[in-house]
TrEMBL record, chains A, B:
Residues 8-175 form the MoaB/Mog domain. It comes from Ignicoccus hospitalis (strain KIN4/I / DSM 18386 / JCM 14125). This is Competence/damage-inducible protein cinA. InterPro entries: CinA, MoaB/Mog-like_dom_sf, MoaB/Mog_dom. Pfam families: MoCF_biosynth. PANTHER family: NICOTINAMIDE-NUCLEOTIDE AMIDOHYDROLASE PNCC (PTHR13939), NMN AMIDOHYDROLASE-LIKE PROTEIN YFAY (PTHR13939:SF0).
Length: 254, 254
């Protein structure tokens, strides 16, 4: 059953691999899917290379049922995600009429002309559905193959954020669970000292993910303890998580 | 020859996969290696799971010669990187005496006692060298197997930053090249409109990576054009990159 919730993220773009850009998209996507009850098995970042994108998309679809990609949907020569996905899924590429309308509508509003480069943004694997882009021009790509779902989003963070709503709408009813999180900062505590307690609590609550984040403030050590719980709804999950964090705090007399 | 410069990054930690934390380590490591002349083939992020870390480390060492990992070296139950690397590289684990001294020295200075959890940070694959940690307690792990080099660093960004100096020292003499970058913002320009020119320039300078980043400021579109060039030294590489960006600017009459 949990198989269905297995998901992964593929971030596409040389600018990420050369470290020019700090990728915030994967955290945003990961957070959204996690809270919706999905489990991110792996995140990968690859260059703008058709073969590398296709091979990695295939790998990730092998270990997960939902794949979200970002990047490589624009008008430039190195935007090759649509082609790579058609290669990975063995689906021929073609001009999507609905996507073409979306691009036309956008560029008309901007007072611009259609060019070969802009038209390219409407070419996607056949059987794909274009995802409306409320912020930029390039439509996203939604492909369903059996139980597997692939959502390709552009790389611009504002566009990813806006288009994630579409992904959530498609996925929220499929998920039977929701996640809820609780965190608390324990002052004057060192991570190594509470490690045995955390391990004990992790064993007591095997379905709750407990994690400590150590830090130092004004020369005093602290540990931020977070718990992530699963339940039928977000509120119950939050309550479960909060209970565990409070139990840890109580045990420390903090 | 270029084979030697192939490198990859493995980010370890559930907190990244659930999107609680925006990973800045991979960009920092990627930037440092890139400018040193190394090429990042892939970045992966995996959960705190021994098998998943080991399998992905093996995959990445298959496609690259330098692997940098971050995370999973601390004192808690879910810090399993040392164990995973020993599994991936088929090297038995053992207490490293030099690492033990490093941990002891740190905790003595902090007025703390040695515990099982703290001692765990000195256990690493045999034949590994511990990397001094000037900021935190956990030493890093440096393993050389044939031409392959693995550097395992902790996950705390300040520790990664400080310990990258060690990585650079080990790698800088191996690299025969350096990278140099130049960027320029072209105002009033749209990405799709300059796409044909960028493609032409990329073909004219096949060894220079040219990338456009579109944006909008006060209602006016702009494109940031960046070029990344390779040369014997950084200055020459920067000059080459700058020449290409200036040529693009000139062609646009901007």
């Amino acid at each position: 059953m949990t198989e269905l919730w297995r998901s992964s993220i593929l971030i596409i773009g040389n600018e990420v691999l050369i470290g020019r850009v700090v990728d915030t998209n994967s955290a945003k996507v990961a957070r959204t899917l996690t809270m919706l009850g999905y489990e991110i098995i792996e995140i990968r970042k690859v260059r703008d290379n058709i073969t590398e994108i296709a091979e990695n998309a295939k790998d990730l679809l092998h270990i997960s049922n939902v794949l979200i990609t970002t990047g490589g949907l624009g008008p430039t020569y190195d935007d090759v995600t649509a082609e790579a996905l058609s290669l990975a899924l063995v689906l021929p590429l073609g001009l999507n009429e609905r996507a073409k309308e979306m691009v036309e509508e956008k560029i008309k509003k901007m007072g611009l002309d259609m060019t070969k480069e802009r038209l390219k943004m409407a070419i996607m694997p056949l059987t794909a559905k274009p995802i409306p882009n409320p912020v930029g021009v390039a439509p996203g790509i939604y492909i369903k193959v059996g139980q597997k779902r692939v959502f390709a989003l552009p790389g611009v963070p504002a566009e990813v954020e806006a288009m994630l709503d579409y992904v959530v709408e498609e996925l929220e009813d499929l998920s039977l669970f929701r996640k809820g999180e609780a965190c608390e900062v324990l002052e004057g505590v060192r991570e190594a000292d509470i490690a045995p307690l955390i391990e004990e609590m992790a064993k007591t609550y095997p379905d709750i993910y407990i994690k400590t984040h150590p830090g130092m403030k004004d020369g005093t050590p602290y540990v931020k303890v977070c718990a992530l719980a699963t339940a039928d709804d977000e509120e119950t999950a939050k309550r479960k998580a909060s209970k565990v964090v409070k139990a840890i705090k109580g045990r420390l007399g903090a």
